[in-house]
Structure formats: structure tokens, C-alpha cells
Design a protein that fits this description.
173 residues; mainly alpha
Length: 173
């Protein structure tokens, strides 16, 4: 890491770490029960990717930074899901769950890889809608927080969110 990038990273991390950690913890609570990636590791990996000297970028706002963080977290989770599907990593094995009536983990609502592919298609059709989905789903921002991050009105965000949900529902059905 270049000295000026390392200095900037050292100054930025304490400012955003707690917020990124909360976002990652909320996101990880919805992941599959067999997910081995922890929220802390997700934040650290995302942060490393964000301040990588080879791909260093400047953020022009808080919203821009959290959009980049959501994209980094999305890519990390998708890479992890693809990694686990590979045969040499046990992708052909079926999990045999023990029946524990008192402890039930929530079923995952979407297939992460299918969602990733659908988001890529949505980005081609409507980049703002794809960005809003990333902020809502991967960064776990509220609609108001996402609207603020994107610098759009809450009403526009609400319409875009309704469109994006319907579009993704159709694509994933």
C-alpha cells in the first residue's frame, strides 16, 4: 500500500468501522446457517478492497463510500458462495441437518448467486435501481438512509424500490 493511501486508510477506518460492522452484522444475520464468514471478516475484507492502492479511489460523499462498501460486501459474499459450490470444496455434498425443534435458523430467502446475476442485469437496465437494491440489501440501509446516500428524495427512492423489487421478483421467479 502506498504511504499516502495507508495514511488515508488509517484515518478512515476508525471513522467508519463501527457503522460498517453494524451493517455487516445485520447482513450476516440473514445469511445461510452454514455461512462461515463472520461480520468482522466481511468488514475487514471489504475495507481492504476499498483502500487497495492499485484500485484506490476517492469518495465524494458518505453515500458514495457506503455504496462502494455495499458493492465490496456483495462481491465478497458472492465469491464465498461460489467458492463453496465448487466440487473440490464439497459443492456436491448435501448438508444433513440434525432436527432441533427448539432452535430453528431462518431459511435463506434468495439464492445469492442468482440475485447477483439479476442485479447485474438490472444495472444494465436501471443503474439507480440496482444501486438502491445494493444499499438496501447488502448495506442494510433503510429506505431513507439509502435515498440520502444516493442524493435522491425519499419519494423517488420509494418508487425506485417498488420497481426494483418487482423487477427482481420477476427475474428470480
Amino acid at each position: 500500500m502506498a504511504p499516502n493511501v495507508a495514511l488515508a486508510a488509517n484515518q478512515l477506518l476508525p471513522v467508519v468501522y463501527d457503522e460498517l460492522r453494524k451493517l455487516a452484522a445485520r447482513k450476516m444475520s440473514e445469511e445461510r446457517p452454514d455461512q462461515t464468514l463472520q461480520a468482522t471478516a466481511l468488514v475487514h475484507e471489504a475495507f481492504i478492497r476499498l483502500v487497495n492502492a492499485e484500485n484506490a479511489q476517492e469518495w465524494n460523499s458518505r453515500g458514495h463510500f457506503f455504496t462502494a462498501a455495499a458493492e465490496a460486501m456483495r462481491r465478497i459474499l458472492v465469491e464465498n458462495a461460489r467458492h463453496k459450490r465448487r466440487l473440490k470444496h464439497g459443492g456436491d455434498r448435501v448438508r444433513d441437518d440434525v432436527e432441533l425443534p427448539d432452535i430453528q435458523a431462518p431459511e435463506p430467502r434468495e439464492d445469492l448467486i442468482a440475485l447477483d446475476a439479476a442485479l447485474d442485469r438490472l444495472k444494465l437496465e436501471d443503474p439507480a435501481a440496482a444501486q438502491l437494491v445494493q444499499l438496501r440489501y447488502f448495506a442494510r440501509l433503510t429506505l431513507t438512509e439509502a435515498a440520502e446516500a444516493m442524493n435522491i428524495s425519499p419519494r423517488t427512492a420509494d418508487r425506485t424500490w417498488a420497481y426494483a423489487k418487482a423487477w427482481l421478483h420477476r427475474e428470480l421467479s
